[in-house]
Design goal:
Layout lengths: L1 E6 L6 E4 L4 H14 L2 E5 L5 E5 L3 E6 L14
Antiparallel strand pairs: 1-2, 1-5, 3-4
Pfam families: DUF3107
InterPro entries: DUF3107 (IPR021456)
GO molecular function, one term: ATP binding
């Protein structure tokens, strides 16, 4: 699933893909913003993304559905 986190006063957003569910990512971000702690997530390449909850401007959590690729998807 693709995740985009916008950081306050920073022009570029943090974009990454993770194997966690949408609910897990959303809960982690919500808790960090509410408590003033950090969001600590791991992407599909094993890298850790750590963002202070107080610095988050917005978050876009993608859908868990996979999109078919190729000409076989056309009917």
């Amino acid at each position: 699933m693709d995740v985009e986190i916008g950081i306050r006063n920073v022009a570029r957003a943090v974009n990454f893909a993770t194997d966690k569910s949408a609910d897990e990512v959303s809960d982690a971000i919500s808790k960090a913003v509410a408590d003033g702690t950090v969001v600590d997530l791991t992407d599909t390449k094993g890298r850790r993304i750590v963002v202070p909850g107080s610095a988050i401007g917005y978050a876009i959590v993608g859908s868990e559905t996979t999109h078919p690729v190729g000409f076989g998807a056309l009917s």
